[in-house]
Each structure stands twice: as C-alpha cells, then as structure tokens.
Amino acid sequence: MSDEHDQLRSVIKDCVHCGFCLPACPTYQLWGEEMDSPRGRIYLANQVLDGAELTAAAAEHFDRCLGCMACMTACPSGVQYDQVIEAARVWTEEARSGEPVPGTGPRDAGPARGAEAEDGGLAGVDGAEGPSARAGGTTDRSISPKGGADVKRRLRDRAVRAAIFSVFPYPRRLRALTGPLRAAQRTGLDRRLARGTLPDRVSPALGAALRLAPPRPREAARGVLPERVAARGPRRAVVGMLTGCVQSVFFPQVNAATARVLAAEGCDVIIPRGQGCCGALSLHSGRAEEAARFARRTIAQFERAGVDAVVVNSAGCGSAMKEYERLLAGLPEPDPTFALAGQEESVSWVARAGALSGKVRDLAEFLAELGPAAPRHPLPVTAAYHDACHLAHAQRITRQPRELLSAIPSLRVVELPDAGMCCGSAGVYNLLQPGAARELGRRKADAVLATGARLVISANPGCTLQITAELGRRGESIAAVHTAEILDASIRGLPAGSLGVR
Ligand code: SF4
Ligand code: SF4
Predict the structure, then answer these.
(1) What is the pLDDT of residues 150-160, one digit of tens each?
(2) What CATH number does the domain located at 3-96 have?
(3) 19: Cβ–Cβ under 8 A, 6 or more apart, which residues?
(4) Which ligand is nearest to the CA of 14?
(5) Which residue lies with its CA nearest to atom 2 of ligand 2?
(6) What is the CATH number of domain 376-499?
(7) How far is the CA of 175 from the centre of ligand 1 (A)?
(8) Whose CA is nearest to atom 5 of ligand 1?
(9) Which of 415, 471, 462 is closest to 442 using CA atoms?
(10) Contact residues of ligand 1, CB 6 A cut-off
C-alpha cells in the first residue's frame, strides 16, 4: 500500500458517518440513495481500498458524483472528499475502460496526439514532456481494482468519452467544430434537431451537446488577444492570464473583459501564446496522467511569463490549478529535475507545481486582494449571482465576488434560493449524465426566475452554458454573464443593454 493510499485511508477515517453532508448533495437530493451520497461513496471507496471488487453498481455511483464538493462545505469533520472522489474516478476509469486509459499506467505510450498538436511548442522542452514520461508505472492512485464482468462501459459510452476528451481540451479542434455549429444555428437546424429525438437516440451526449451549444459570441469580442495588455495608469502588478479551452472558444468576450478589467486596475496582463487546457476536465474525470501532461505544459508556460500571479476566470480551471502539486505528487516524475533559469538547484515538477499553484488566483479573489483603483459607473439592473461549485465549494470563494459586485453603483445583486446547489454542469457531467444534469439545470433555472432578476452572473463557462440553455428552452430572455463582464461594463460606463439585458 502506497503513501497515497495511506493518506486516502486517513481521509476516509475522518468521516464519522454523521450524515450532515447528505442534504447538501445534489445526487442524494435527486435519488435519495445512500450510495449516491458522499457518505455512501466514502463507504464504497473504503471497500475498494480493502480489496473489494469494483462492481458496475459501485462504478455507477462514482460516475454519478458531480464533483461539486458541496459535501466538503457541509462536512463538520473536514473530510477531504475531493481526494476520495479523485482516486475513485481513476479506479473507475481503469476498471470501466476496455482500452488503455490515456495516462493511467504503463500501457500509456506517450503524450496524447492532441498534446503534441496543441502543445504550444512545449512537448519535449524543459521537461514538459519527455521520453521518461512514458516509462512511468501505473499511477500511484491506481490500485488496479478488479472489476466485475459487467463493469466495462458499453462501446457507445467509450466512444462518447473518447470523442469528448479528444476535442474539448484542444481549443483548435473545438474551434473547428464551431463552423458547422454556427451554420446549423443560422439555418435553425440545431433547434429542430434539439427538439427531436434523433440525437438522443444516437447518443444522449449528442442530444445534450446540441441543447447546450452556445450562441455566437458578440461580434466585438471576437479575435485574438495580444500577448501583453499594458496597465492603465501606474502599474500595480504583473499578472498572467489563463485563456482556457472552453472559455477561449465559446466565451472570448469573457477573456477580453478580464484583460480589460485587470489593465484598468493597474495590471500588466501577460497572455502566453499557445495556451491550451489546464487539465481540469481530465483531472475531474479520472484521467490523472493526461491531466498531468496539461498541467506540466501550463506550469512551464507561466514560469516563462515571470508574473506575480496567474489570474484564472474559470472556476473549474482555477480549482484544478490550485491542486497541481497534489496531482503531480502522485505520479512518476517525467524528467527528474529541471533547473530554472538563474537557479543552481534543480527543481522537481512537484516543487514547480507548488510554486505555480501558490500564484493562482481566481479573478474575483485577485481583484479583492488588489483593491479597486478604476472608478465604477452605475449599472442599473437586478442581477442574480450564481455560485459556481468550483468557486464556492472547491475554492471557498463566495465573499469576494459579492464584494466586487456590491461596489458597482445601482447594481442590485440578489441571492438565489438554495445557492450552494450545483446547476448540473460540472465539467462534462452534463454530457455524460444528461438526465441528472437537466433536472439540476431545471431547478437552477427555477431559482433564477424566482428572483425576478434580468441578469444572472456566473464565474464558470460550464455553468453559463447550462443555465443559459435551460432559460432559453423556456423562452426566457435573461442574459448570463461573467463577473468580469459586469465589472468591465461598469468601469467603461456601458449600459446594461451591452450585456444583453432586455
Ligand atoms: S461532490 Fe457533490 S455530488 Fe459528489 S458526493 Fe459531494 S455533494 Fe454529492
Ligand atoms: S463526509 Fe462529513 S458530513 Fe458526511 S457523513 Fe462523513 S463526517 Fe459526516
């Protein structure tokens, strides 16, 4: 048993089975099943650690977990459930995959082809990926659980997962898909298909993807951001900015607004070229080594940028980047050491991950620490603030966005009923578990509508897609924007209509 498994046992021992987490858990609320609660999943994980076979039913209970971490906020004993579900997802991927899971063991033959294609020139450089990366053993998280005969995913489910993970983390591939998507949106084909049953019969994930597809971004926000956006007025900080994969393709206006707000607050903003996925989607889906490859690449890019902080405007990405050290600590080092420029001592990837994670800040967290410099103009609108789970529960950031928003004159911010409950987005959960995700999306849309707000604010692209899709399905014209966009509009003195408020 490895140190990592000892650590997991110790986390599991912290659970005193009190059940306080059960009402906070969306899947327990949906199904009322003990094994679809945090306490039930902790019990199952303990059984697997004790050598029990991972049955199809147990794997399904792990798959159904949103990873929303509401249970961690609710738990009075401080149980680190994130560590439990991360390990359980790796076991589940190993047991349910009929083929080598990219990056879960010695079968892994090297970097994913996409990592070579969209690595920003970093593959094989600075130890970002090297031959020894391919020689590592099974991940330390892996216990190669014996799966029951029926645990393997069906061919269609494996194909869906393969398609998702060979497209979503790669902005260029994702962008290539937007051409046909926009053509379908222009002709109304997407709406006709989404209303019918054909896509769901081909694959529920395809039906979900059609329903969730975002509209074309506002024209003014399209285009590539420069590598450096200069501070306006006296420089107060030099920050790096993650552009992300889903964010950069579907919400370029959020990245543009983020850069403008940071510059207006006196930051030089460094936006490294060739950025890709930070690894969050893979990390939250049990693909630890794939996540590690993305993480190493991201670490190397921001090290070179020489910044005081790395600002992230996507809650899921920020949460994953703050976990880089723990992610890499459980995996073999690809290139034992790498001397940073100006350092005599060589530095391990784990240490580099720790250094980078220490600089990662969510946008709201960073701006609250920095304090406002740019004047705010009135924005007379009522907005509901949605707590993204990976911001509120995983990063415990709830106060800072509310403080930033409350400083905008004339903006009335209202709270959502049951604000801590997940909207069902949860990375790619809404594609992989579309039924549960839709029900949670419906509940969140009900909560938004109950407030009477004309605008909903979210700090995660997945939440924005999920909430917008459900409101749109009901014919509601409530705009959904990122915190960055509303701050940007206020600083620039734009009207609420510029945010899509009708
Ligand atoms: S992460 Fe969310 S869905 Fe999973 S057990 Fe915890 S509260 Fe339930
Ligand atoms: S995870 Fe925490 S809240 Fe849930 S049963 Fe265990 S100790 Fe209680």
Answers:
(1) 778 777 888 88
(2) 1.10.1060.10
(3) 37, 39
(4) 2
(5) 75
(6) 3.40.50.11810
(7) 31
(8) 38
(9) 471
(10) 24-27, 38, 41, 65-71, 81
